[in-house]
Amino acid sequence: MHARTALAICLVFASAAAVRAQSRPPEVDPALIEDLVAANRILSHEKVLDSFGHVSVRDPRNPNRYLIARAVAPSLVTPNDILTADLDSNLIDAQGRTSYKERFIHGEIYKVRPDVQAIIHSHSPTVVPFSVTKYPLKPILHNAAFLGDGPPVFDPRDVAGATNLLVETPALGQAIARTLGKANIVLMRGHGDTVVGPNVRLATFWAIYAEVNARQLAQAIAIGGPITFIEGEEQRLTHQNMAKAYERPWEMWKREAMTAR
Amino acid sequence: MHARTALAICLVFASAAAVRAQSRPPEVDPALIEDLVAANRILSHEKVLDSFGHVSVRDPRNPNRYLIARAVAPSLVTPNDILTADLDSNLIDAQGRTSYKERFIHGEIYKVRPDVQAIIHSHSPTVVPFSVTKYPLKPILHNAAFLGDGPPVFDPRDVAGATNLLVETPALGQAIARTLGKANIVLMRGHGDTVVGPNVRLATFWAIYAEVNARQLAQAIAIGGPITFIEGEEQRLTHQNMAKAYERPWEMWKREAMTAR
Amino acid sequence: MHARTALAICLVFASAAAVRAQSRPPEVDPALIEDLVAANRILSHEKVLDSFGHVSVRDPRNPNRYLIARAVAPSLVTPNDILTADLDSNLIDAQGRTSYKERFIHGEIYKVRPDVQAIIHSHSPTVVPFSVTKYPLKPILHNAAFLGDGPPVFDPRDVAGATNLLVETPALGQAIARTLGKANIVLMRGHGDTVVGPNVRLATFWAIYAEVNARQLAQAIAIGGPITFIEGEEQRLTHQNMAKAYERPWEMWKREAMTAR
Amino acid sequence: MHARTALAICLVFASAAAVRAQSRPPEVDPALIEDLVAANRILSHEKVLDSFGHVSVRDPRNPNRYLIARAVAPSLVTPNDILTADLDSNLIDAQGRTSYKERFIHGEIYKVRPDVQAIIHSHSPTVVPFSVTKYPLKPILHNAAFLGDGPPVFDPRDVAGATNLLVETPALGQAIARTLGKANIVLMRGHGDTVVGPNVRLATFWAIYAEVNARQLAQAIAIGGPITFIEGEEQRLTHQNMAKAYERPWEMWKREAMTAR
Fold first, then answer.
1. Which residues of D touch C125 (CB under 8 A)?
2. What ipTM was reported for this prediction?
């Protein structure tokens, strides 16, 4: 990179930070907004999110609020698109803008999972087939030990009969939070999954490796024969270790996603 | 590339804006032409169209006409390539240019489906395997509820014996329109599919998610066991809802396709 | 594109053409060299060729010679890399450069197939699995009717016992030419395939759709049940028709490959 | 991105050339460092390495040392990131930087395999499914003859009971070196593989074709029926030949990886 190009990039980012300072209440750490935007872009670039998914973080100023983009495709999210909602998913600062209809997923999970600071809902392409078959999405790759012994699967028919499959009401949001329980991820039948985590970088890591493990498990099933899963004490140790290992991939993914066209 | 070719490209770029203003009758909304061009580019960028597919819209000035590109690969279509045909698929304003030989697909469907305003014919790569096997391409992903209980499959052998598999006559166009019936999509054996819709953005959405659902269904089949499809009232509600949800993906796909090299 | 950028492109191409004129004997049509280079780049861009494949055309000045690149990865081939060989695959104008060790494939086929004007040898990734199993690579997609009722498979063990699998001798070149017979393509066990055609654009078309049909057939097999192939009179009509249809994809592929980084 | 981060990037770029000159002992051939960096970038670009893999070369100045990057994603490695370790995997010139926790893989293999000059550890995506099933990853493609009759599979449970699956101790490094034995590659259950070679270009070639062969073998298995592997004398001849054939792909891969965004 030319020094001149690098300087131009500096100026862009410097002025972007200034603009941002006015448009967001001063007490929100811009680094958190930057992470939230990066998570949207990374998950789009990695093809985990299509145009419909969404990512949120709990508001560090007020645990009864969360930050989420207006209703725009994740790959197009910028800092100015981030709105604030309360845990009933009412928008606080929308100024005429709307957010995702399914944001009840976020609000209702934040209510009952105080440990959760970030939530990702996606149509993760290879997770969907596992949501409509009986084969559990158990971990075969060490990076995917967070999957435990196979995530719970949410089916809205169990609680609400025939629906449009979307989580567009508080009641459905509460139902998916119940199905999630203490897990890190819940599959959604015919729809995708929702990943929750203690911060948005680790949740991003988990959302990506849920997709990677799904691909590799589907291949292992096609190869055939008994499959060795990551289970028991090994699962616990592996999960514990990988939960600290998200900074290196985050740096790489962010560089790739933010410099992509 | 020849110097002559490069020079030709220069001239095209230099004069495109000027030429465009005169080459289209003033009453066509340029936004519709832009959408038609964008659909060609989006579907190419998303790998639903190869070099042979085509996209049309019914002419808003005259419901007995439709707009379709000259015979050029969809990824290369520009506003200057759009021609007008009557419903017998005679070109009105070709000025020596030709369009796709299979344009009877478009004309004959527009004749019998007044609700249809846009048509896409593609060699959608993962739809082809479903066209030559007996497994119905039923929806497992909520975005694909438009597939109903599995689309009809058109086989030219049923009406015309051995052919070159292309829909190059009015009779074959009428036959595919009959097989389509009231559906949103008809598979074409050993060939691909044709998607019809109330506008070109929704038809684009459906063409893309037909391919996505085909990929995911093929994976679910390989995983094995009973598969939960989207059926009955749930299918109706999901389809109804998704039919209003195409603007967000359109914005993203268009940005990606039109800024691609 | 800015006019300035377009102008820069013009100048580059214009000077490239000038340079080329000196480096090639005047009687070779530069358009043929351009096609040969483009075929190398297209087939690399479409992932049919890895770094080892090669493409040749029969020399229009002398049917007992052919043009082929020096030993360089196809994605890096430029007009200056094109050498001339006789049909025993001796290089005529190498000036110290070497070409591919397997060029006997080309020379020996040109000897016995006067109808062949272009040859492509590739490690086409999804064709390889069909070369090591018994399932015939028969056409399910109309674009692939040139595959006939399944191409012959060349196994060097049948003629030479244990080898390094490469066609590095005249005898092995003659053997593959015999196995090819009158077909358009011959699979090579554990290796890839060789496609022959009446011109390099059609051969390129066939090499790409051999790979596409292999992918789609593998998926159809995984979906299961009886598969409808393109056979008999339908195969004949489809093949005849598609053999005239390569200009539209060529234009698209060339644009994409030659403007890629 | 923070203005602060952007500024840091500027400073890095501005001072990189200057720093580099001093940070490497003069006697290391810069061409070897360039190869090591290129291998990191190539294997990332080819999707064999995700953000966690690592590549090393034995130090040409001292066979009891090796060169490996600091703990950074391979796609981001630059010459300034290369550190030196002794064969107990103590860092010699870290200046406060850390390297990969699993670097014992490298040190312990270099100890017992004097023929090995380069080592690659990856989470090669299609190799993982073969590490958790019983199907041996035997070669079907001539380029993959280095796989022999199927590589050994390392399972840390066999030597250390439940672990986090990572090779983070000398004892586990010694165990994987024992499992590797005289092979060119060892699979690691639920984790990936480690490839060793006489130079970093050939090791890169092998790491890439291990992944390619895994993909093609998985497809052959799905196609079904008996599969013809490369075995016996044919395997020996093919392996011998391909072991000299890495320069052409290296040139192509390096061009593509180093010019990628």
1. 212, 215-216
2. 0.90
